[in-house]
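Hi R.,

Here's the chain you asked about this morning:
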Amino acid sequence: MKQIDYYFTVLSPWAYLAGSRLEDIASRHGAVITYKPLDIGQLLTRTGGTLPKDRHPARMEYRMQELKRWSKTLAMPMNHTPAHWPTNGAPASYAIIAAQSAGGGDVAALVQGIMRACWAGEKDIAQDEVIKACLTDAGFDPSLADRGLLAGAEAYGRNLEDGVSAGVFGSPFYICDDGERFWGQDRLEALDAHLSAN
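And here is the predicted structure, written out as tokens:
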């Protein structure tokens, strides 16, 4: 069975814009997705990237144009300057890690629900009530947000180390089990083609 390691931050507008396309691709090819949320600030720092707040205005202006173009092209509702961004992505990431480990719900729906809450719902995804609502909506026990925080923190740290070792430098980032890497939601068609050919 094919495997896709999906590295991302819950704070990424580009991961939000991926929507359910990764899951659709995986389903067509019988691939299993492992969700690996990580700390994007540390990832960028360690791999030569620049945090948005430190980027030149020209880069940020172009980023905004691209966000508007892509959200329109994909017909995805999006607040391009959400009220609660940036925020602390760790609590939501821990919940995703706990849910993936516990099973019983839809991890993809949880991931997408959390990002939709930020980028379309004007909610602070660092808040317990927002995370618990997303867990419930995805079919998970909302108390997962309160349990396994240490295990979540450890896995969150491991995801960063694994990502750096595997050549990850942004979000979203997809790695197939044959080592092929794809960066960005705009590379999902290439990922699909690669899986079709292998």
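One quick note: Residues 11 and 43 are 13 Å apart (CA to CA).

Cheers,
M.
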